[in-house]
Amino acid sequence: MKNINDYDKLDLFDQFFVKFPSFLPMNRSYSRVLELGPGLHPRSLPNRFFPIERYLAIDRDQKSIEQCKMLFSSPSATFECVDIAQYLPEEEFDLIIDSSVLHCLESYDIWLRTFQNFSASLSDGGVMIGEMAVKSDRMDFQEPYFYDEQTSILYKDGKINRLILDPKVVEKALLFCGFKIFFFTIPLGLKVIFDDSRDKIKAEDPDVLRYVVVKDRSNRY
User: Fold this and answer.
1) Strand partners, 181
2) What are the residues whose beta carbons fall under 8 Å from the beta carbon of 105, sequence distance 6 or more?
3) Does pTM top 0.90 for this prediction?
4) What architecture is domain 2-135+165-219?
5) Which residue, among 167, 172, 177, 88, has the nearest Cα to 132 in the 3D structure?
């Protein structure tokens, strides 16, 4: 993800916990953390902001998981290579971090079901923070990419590449999953570049949605 605005140069996790702490309900414990798609940079493992008793990171890339294990050895940390869309957590978490991985799912139905699964694993009052590519007003793609307006799926060379939803669809889905929306914004100038042939953003690139939602049993439709 690239940006042209200094306001948004901070990493997603740093932004929420360092620059904008008022965006999170801080009067509770975040000792049990689940991170989706940590890559090589687990966001919360260094215990920079609060003590962590249990940290679980899941990723579908085995290489990333193995490297995480070598780089971040900790008795409180577990790294697992799994299919996130099929993963059913067997424990409760206080905080779930989506590190730009859920928009890699293959359809809206799978994305929604996965959100529901993780919502069920959050403790009451638990928080989920994340970022994802979303449809922009001027969004347009050139070959070998094709965006299907009906399914919200981006294809590359005829194969599914990403899911790029309308932000209004995301908002409605978060409420349906029983979340209270605490922070929901599309930062000015923050874009996603899926085209590997360039590194400069264009107005036609997808926007980035950043959100903080809280598990609220009374908020379900």
Assistant:
1) 213
2) 84, 85, 111, 114, 163
3) no
4) 3-Layer(aba) Sandwich (3.40)
5) 167
